[in-house]
Specification:
Blueprint lengths: L1 H35 L4 E8 L3 E3 L2 E17 L4 E6 L6 E2 L4 E5 L2 H29 L5 H27 L1 E3 L4 E3 L9 E2 L4 E18 L11 E6 L7 E8 L9 E9 L10 E7 L3 E8 L10 E11 L2 E17 L2 E6 L6 E5 L9 E4 L15
Parallel strand pairs: 1-20
Antiparallel strand pairs: 1-19, 2-15, 3-10, 3-14, 4-6, 4-9, 5-8, 6-7, 8-10, 10-13, 11-12, 11-14, 12-13, 15-18, 16-17, 16-19, 17-18
Helix pairs in contact: 2-3
């Protein structure tokens, strides 16, 4: 019995020993393979830094407004007698747009005007008699009062009739009317929108910290979504004298020429206030920047002389991103003109990684978007 137990123990020890030995053999071979494995070379695209001019701007958003704009409404109630304009047409100041029925007022005006000569003659007669001391001053005053009251009634009726003739207050373009012929209009009914679009305005806000960099007459570049490839040029026309204390923002208004009529009120727009040009600046693609919570950096490529020959390696350099514009960024830091930086392929890189520069047009925007 003891002999059989001893044999089983020996067999178990041999089995465990063989497993341990096999695992040790695999680990040694793995270490040897890793040691002899060639260092990874990462393909990247690169560019050389050259000093360029940088156009700094103060960016803001806002909405386009007309030079003048008003919704035409009626001051008096009544029935629409005539509509004297076509939708979307150009009208001059004083052009009759809508006329309300004024027959009753016209009739009352004629009745008053008929009475005017008689009261005028009565007043003139009493004036002569008063000078002759044939009538009292009270009789003359009563005649004068009746005559002047009638004149006031005539002027009031003329004003009422004029209120029923709704005219354009300024030159501009009318929109689509909201009333129809024969419709009864209450006081204040919206009739049509009138806008002077010869020049447009844009109102936006900028931080108070930028107040020292802006002034009236300063150039502003404006972009709207309707014309993405067109830049409208305007100028700052007014700056609000007070800063809004709750937000620290100050309101600015820019005036934009609109001779071609492309801009319409209500358009969402982006404004870029143009600041003085900066020379000899280092500008890199935003794809070349490794954005991180602990700081932004770029990878600079340098030559490394090794036993196997010359190799290209990268060094991580911290940079400060001063401004961004489109796909580019203005940076400062331990960079200089002539440095070659990585523009794509940063994900797998680390300090002292070995790289291979390849040519790629993957970052270039296509001339036209592909059709679906």
């Amino acid at each position: 019995m003891k002999k059989w137990f001893l044999i089983m123990v020996i067999i178990a020890l041999l089995a465990f020993g063989s497993v341990i030995g096999f695992n040790w053999f695999i680990q040694q071979k793995t270490k040897e393979a890793i040691t002899n494995m060639p260092e990874a070379v990462y393909p990247v695209t690169a560019m050389k830094l050259e000093p360029v001019q940088w156009q700094p701007t103060i960016d803001a958003i806002g909405f386009i407004e007309p030079n003048q704009g008003v919704t035409i409404a009626n001051e008096s109630s009544g029935i629409v007698k005539s509509i004297d304009f076509e939708n979307g047409t150009h009208v001059n100041a004083g052009t009759l747009l809508v006329q309300l029925d004024s027959q009753v007022e016209q009739a009352n005006l004629k009745a008053k005007q008929v009475q005017l000569p008689a009261l005028k003659a009565d007043y003139d007669r009493l004036l002569r008699l008063y000078r002759q001391k044939s009538v009292s001053k009270q009789d003359l005053d009563n005649a004068e009062s009746r005559y002047m009251a009638l004149q006031a009634d005539i002027e009031s009726l003329k004003a009422t009739i004029n209120e029923r003739q709704i005219k354009a207050p300024f030159t501009g373009i009318v929109g689509i009317r909201s009333v129809n012929l024969g419709q009864y209009l209450q006081i204040g009914t919206n009739i049509v929108r009138l806008e002077d679009t010869s020049s447009m305005k844009m109102r936006f806000t900028v931080p108070q910290t930028q107040l020292s960099h802006i002034h009236v007459g300063q150039l502003v570049h404006i972009n709207v979504d309707a014309y993405p490839n067109h830049v409208f040029e305007g100028q700052i026309a007014a700056i609000e004298p007070a800063v809004f204390y709750q937000s620290g923002l100050i309101q600015v208004q820019a005036r934009i020429p609109n001779t071609d009529g492309k801009l319409r009120s209500g358009m969402f727009a982006k404004a870029a206030i143009v600041l003085p040009t900066l020379k000899d600046q280092l500008v890199v693609p935003q794809t070349a920047i490794n954005f991180a919570l602990y700081g932004n950096s770029v990878y600079v490529i340098h030559k490394s002389h090794e036993k196997t020959g010359t190799a290209l390696r990268v060094k991580q350099v911290n940079v400060n991103v001063l401004e961004r514009s489109g796909a580019e960024a203005l940076v400062s830091g331990d960079l200089k003109a002539g440095d070659e930086i990585v523009t794509s392929g940063l994900v797998r890189l680390s300090n002292d990684s070995k790289v291979n520069i390849v040519q790629s047009n993957a970052l270039q925007l296509p001339a036209a978007m592909p059709a679906l």
